Structure formats: structure tokens, C-alpha cells
Amino acid sequence: MLIEIAGCTSSGKTRLLVQVLVELDKRGLKAILAYDDFLSAHRISLNHHKLRSLAVDALLVPWLPKVWKKYRDYIKIVSRMSLRRKDTLFMRLNIFRNFLKKLCLHEYFGRSETNNVLVFLDEGTVHTLNNVFSHYDKAPDLAQLSKILKYLPLPDVIVRVDAPIVTIVSRAVRRENYPWQHLDRRQLCCLAENTNKIYQFIEKKRDLQEKRLVIVTENSHPSLEKQNVRRVVNYLASHIG
User: Fold this and answer.
1) Helix (H, G, I), strand (E, B), or coil: what is residue 217?
2) CATH no. for residue 111?
3) What are 146's strand-pairing partners?
4) Range with the lowest mean pLDDT among 19-28, 119-128, 175-184, 227-236?
């Protein structure tokens, strides 16, 4: 079972994921991180985040022809949308690179025997499509997004972590190596608001509410944080297999 952890950058995705993994282990449920499992299958062990990411990029190259054959029209549209953004060339290429990477990983795990294993992908196909359409200086083109949503491959479950805009922005400005660190607070607010708007649009258009979506609102209060973790774990435990 492939589970995508989605949400605005700095919304608390990683923190929730770590706690969910601990709770799943306590319950005896097998859970793995997509990157870890993918690299392990290729007998590669790396701890450095950037090296791991580059290794995954390189190992996924053989999957590009398969993904291109299956999602050619989708990739063409997203490539044009990515390159039309007003960001730096590096940022535009990086957004498109991540889009292709998560598309390839989706195909890889879709063909793997993972029915009884919970595979967690932090920022998967839904999140990377959101990145293509979310801007800090204008509203997202929802009409164009609507036209290509039929191509979007979905994971088995999406866990979207929500958080107040003010919390997301305050965390973002304190983060090191944050990809949007050149933006001011007003622009960060606009980006976060657009990101949430796109998630809600995708969820409505693809009718995810009843099928495969769990939304948790990030909260640092210990008791409420535990409630979020239990809610996600209970949902996954009831759907595995």
C-alpha cells in the first residue's frame, strides 16, 4: 500500500510521519519509507539527504521510458507549465525533476508486491503536481489543472497535513536551505494559501474525501498530536491487506 504524505512545506509532515512510523511499529505493522526501500533494493546505503536524492534520480533513469510511454500527454503538459513559471531556471527544472521522480517511484511501487506493507512517500505525485501550479505572485490556473487531473496517478492513501498559514510562514523563514527563502512573508503567505487551495481543488475534483484521504491539522499540543497519530494509524490499520 502506497501512502503519500502531502501538505505545505513546513506544515509538519515529517514530524507526523516519524510519529506514525513509531506507532505502527508498536502495533506490529510493517512500514517502510519509499526511498529506503528503493535504495535497499539496489543495495545502496546512504545517510546524506542530497546524496540519497541524487542516487534515487540516477536509479530511476531506466524507468523514464516506461513512464513516458504511459503518461506522455501528462508529462508534456506539466513540462510546459513548469518551464513557464517565473522562478529561476534552476527552480523550474527542479520542480519538473521532482515531478518526474515521483511519477517514476509511483510506477515502481505500483508494480511491487506491497499489499501487506505500508510504503510511505513523503511528497508524492499529488504534492509535486501542486508545486507546478502553486505560485507566490498570482492565483493558480485551476482551469488548466482541471484539464489534466484525469492523468494524475493517485497513491492508495493520501495523508494531508494542514496547518495555520501563520505557523507555516513562521517556520519557513527559520528553515535552512528552504527553497523559497528568497520570498518575503507576504509572498510566503500567498504561496501557502495557493497550495492549500490546489489541494482542496484536487480532493474535490478527484472525489477523494470518502476513498483515500486523511486530513490532519498539525497541532503541537501533546494530546492533540497523539490524536492525529492515532487517527492516521487506525485508518491505515483498517485498510491494509
Assistant:
1) strand
2) 3.40.50.300
3) none
4) 175-184
Sign of the dihedral through C-alpha 180, 186, 187, 189: positive
3-state secondary structure of 213: strand
Q: What are phi and psi of 88, to 5 degrees?
A: -65, 160
Question: In a 3-state reduction of DSSP, which class is residue 58?
Answer: helix
Question: Of 111, 118, 107, which Cα lies nearest the Cα of 239?
Answer: 118
CA pair distance 166, 54, nearest whole angstrom: 33
pTM, rounded to two decimals: 0.89
Tens digits of per-residue pLDDT, 77-89? 999 999 888 888 9
Percent share of the chain, pLDDT over 70: 93
Burial class (CB in 10 A: 0-12, 13-18, 19+), 104: buried
Please provide the size of the chain in residues.
Answer: 241
125-133 and 185-205 helices cross at what angle (nearest 10)? 130
**Per the structure, how many domains does the chain have?**
1
Q: Which of 40, 33, 39 is nearest to 56 (CA)?
A: 39
**What are the CA-CA distances from residue 157 to residues 60, 170, 206, 213 (Å)?**
23, 29, 13, 6
Amino acid, res. 111? R
Q: Which domain holds residue 122?
A: 2-239
